[in-house]
Amino acid sequence: MNDIHSKIEQERDEARSVCEIKGDGSVECAAAWDAVEELQAEAAHQRQKETPKNSLQQYCDANPEADECRIYDN
User: Fold this and answer.
1) What is the DSSP string of 22-43?
2) Domain for residue 7, yes or no?
3) 10 DSSP 8-state letter
4) pLDDT tens across 17-51, in order?
5) Is residue 74 part of a domain?
6) Cβ(30)–Cβ(15) under 8 Å?
7) What DSSP designation does 67 have?
8) Is 9 a member of any domain?
């Protein structure tokens, strides 16, 4: 996990320099920040996989229609 964080920092530094050189509105700048966002999403995905589910989460995965598992939108 530490490796991905160092890669994120490296990509951030690169994105900043690309945006300084090419301009904030450039295609290259947007692509550089997209790369940073993709790495951040992967890091979040890896963290989520590491967190074990509690018994209620496991129950709701198996029984999504159960009253205990309902999710209400406000």
Assistant:
1) H-TTSHHHHHHHHHHHHHHHHH
2) yes
3) H
4) 999 999 999 999 999 999 999 999 999 988 877 77
5) no
6) no
7) G
8) yes
